[in-house]
Amino acid sequence: MAFSRTSPLILFFACSLFLHGTLGEIICEDLPTDVCSFSIASSGKRCLLENYATKDGKVAYQCRTSEVVVARMAEYIETDQCVSACGVDRNSVGISSDALLEPQFTTKLCSPSCYRNCPNIVDLYFNLAAGEGKKTS
Description:
By secondary structure, the chain is of the alpha+beta class. The chain has one domain (25-132). Helices cover 36% and strands 18% of the residues. The chain contains five helices and four strands. A two-stranded antiparallel ribbon has the order 1-4. Strands 2-3 form a two-stranded antiparallel sheet. The longest helix has 18 residues, at 6-23. The chain is globular, with a radius of gyration of 20 Å. Residues 6-22 have low confidence and may be disordered.
C-alpha cells in the first residue's frame, strides 16, 4: 500500500471540515437560558433573553439572536465572575440603559474588576448609553 505525501494533507483537510462543528459554533437559539444574556454568537450578534407565554399560560424563556453586531467580538459567553463584578443580572429579560441612572450600578460597572476585565459588558452598556444619549458619569 503506497502512502503519498499528499495523503496527510487530504486527511488534515477532511478533518478540518468537521472540526468547526465539533468545537461548537455558538448559536444563540441553542444556548441554555442561564448563559444567554451577555453572550455573543459566532456571527458576532448579541444573544438576548426573551420571555413568551406557553400554551398553558405560563411564562417561559428562550435565547434569541439580536440584530446588534459587536465589533471585534464573536463566540463569547460572559463569565460568572464578570456578571458578578459588573452587577448585572443574567436572568434579566431584554436590556435597558435605565440601570445607568442608578449610582450603585454605575459604581460596579466602572469598578476596576469590571471595567478592566469585562469588555463585553462595558461595551454593551457604553453603546446603550451612547444610543440613547445618556451620560454615565
